[in-house]
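Lab notebook, entry 123. We have the chain sequence and a SMILES string for zinc ion, and the next step in the workflow is to get a structural model of the bound complex before anyone spends time on docking refinements. Request logged below.

Task: model protein plus zinc ion, output structure tokens.
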Amino acid sequence: MANSKTHAIVGGLSGLAVSVFDADDHERTAQNPILATAVGTFFGKLPDVLEPALRNPHHRQFCHSVTVLVALGYGLKKTYEWKPQDNIEGVLRCLMLCAGAGYISHLLLDATTPRSLPLFGKR
Ligand SMILES: [Zn+2]
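Result returned:
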């Protein structure tokens, strides 16, 4: 079962991977591996900040749900397809991709546990 440290590391690596593998000519100046790792780490831990696991084995509700996973996946696809018009939009696009990758990494790790993820939140 993934703990807070695992979520932070995998989230950070997810953000870093986005910044490394999503670099193209248009956004090269928008890529910052340190910022991408920090954003991925923060968003990799965010679901357990919103719904803390302390003394509550049923803490996985809406923020940990399959619904949020699918919605984030769709949003990530739309963000990936977005063609920024300037450098600020390029930075924003990169940060959104890193944040989404970090958050999704958390949900995917939690989905591998025996409790998995609820569809909407209440079980
Ligand atoms: Zn969690």
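Notes for the group: The two ends are 20 Å apart (CA to CA). Worth checking against the assay data. Residues 12 and 41 are 4 Å apart (CA to CA).
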